Structure formats: C-alpha cells, structure tokens
C-alpha cells in the first residue's frame, strides 16, 4: 500500500475511533458536557468533573486535543472545538434515547 494512502487512512480513522470510544469513555462525555457553555481552566474543569488527579485530567485533555475535540485557549482554559460541539450535539440524543428506553431521565453528569 502506498505510504500516502496509509497516512491518509490513519488521519481519517482517528476521529472515527474517538467517536466509537466515546460510548465507552464516560469521562470524555463529562468533559465535553462541562465545556458546553464556554472555556474552563483545568482547575475548574477538574472540580466540575470530580477528577482528583491533575495528571489524569491532563492526559485525558491531551487525548481530546489530539482528536480535535478540545482546544487550549489563552488564559481562558480549555474550550470545545467546532468538532467537539458537533460531537456533543450528536451524541446527546443517543444518551437521552437510552435513558428513556431504560425508563429514567438524567443529565450526562449523573
């Protein structure tokens, strides 16, 4: 397989893998949910997500930055990229459907 084709398929496969992983990574949805209204500093984000370890949170944010879901904004902290906003908007109806099907209503935080 030509090198260009391998490189291109790897780049396009990364966001798809993040999307599929999102279902199994509740913490990723929680971070997206907390950033929906605007940027947060890592300290505020750690408190909002009940994340005790700054190291773990930074690793998670780095993974999400690599996937193009969040961005680091000067002095304001982390915010959603357009892709992150689109993903959050697309995934929320799936969670709402699952909750209705199970006979319960809840927010992503619960």
* Rg from alpha-carbon coordinates: 15 Å
Q: Which H/E pattern describes the elements?
A: HHHHEEH
Distance between the termini: 46 Å
- From the spread of the alpha carbons, the general shape counts as globular
| CATH architecture field | Orthogonal Bundle
Tally of contiguous helical segments: 5
Write the CATH fold name.
Arc Repressor Mutant, subunit A
Count of domains: 1
Return the CATH class: Mainly Alpha
Name the beta content range.
5-15%
Unreliable residue stretches = 1-11
If you had to describe this structure to a student in words, what would you say it looks like?
Helices cover 65% and strands 7% of the residues. With 110 residues, it is mainly alpha-helical. It has one domain: Winged helix-like DNA-binding domain superfamily/Winged helix DNA-binding domain (Arc Repressor Mutant, subunit A, Orthogonal Bundle). Strands 1-2 form a two-stranded antiparallel sheet. The chain starts with a helix and ends in a 9-residue tail after the last helix. The model is unreliable at 1-11 (pLDDT under 50).
